[in-house]
Amino acid sequence: MKFIASLAIAAAACAVAAPASAQFAKPEDAVKYRQSALFVMSQHFGRIGAMVNGRAPYDAKSALENAETVENMSHLPWAGFVPASEGISQKAKADIWKEQVKFKEHNEKLMGETSKLVAAAKTNNLDNLKTAFGQTAAACKACHDNFRNN
Ligand code: ASC
To answer: Which long-range contacts (CB under 8 A, 24 or more apart) does 57-61 make?
Structure first.
């Protein structure tokens, strides 16, 4: 019993320590994972967009909650771009795997901008939110222009 328990603990520790590429049972799951994370991020980003574009009333509390979700989600998609998933989605350009350094720079740029989006939301100032929204959107677009088929 003790042995089985320690096996379970060892297995759990391995699961935590496993590299990103080993976190998915199959490459299709990695694609679904990254697309899901990007979709959730876009939904919350869009709610901020509605406020900064005047389609929804400005609500500082809601802006901050949405910005925090965008920031959290912005860390997730990248682990789903495992090499084994190349070619499964027609949206992801092969350049993602050929230009890993550049792709990573775009990922990091986005994470930096979403962190500034949270900081801007905390100022309770719509103009600050507008600026940070624009810069975050530009980071989304720059990566899409380089690495996504439309
Ligand atoms: C969004 C969204 C994106 C980005 C991009 C910015 O709201 O879903 O993918 O902004 O359109 O250019």
So the answer is: 58/126, 58/129, 60/121, 60/124
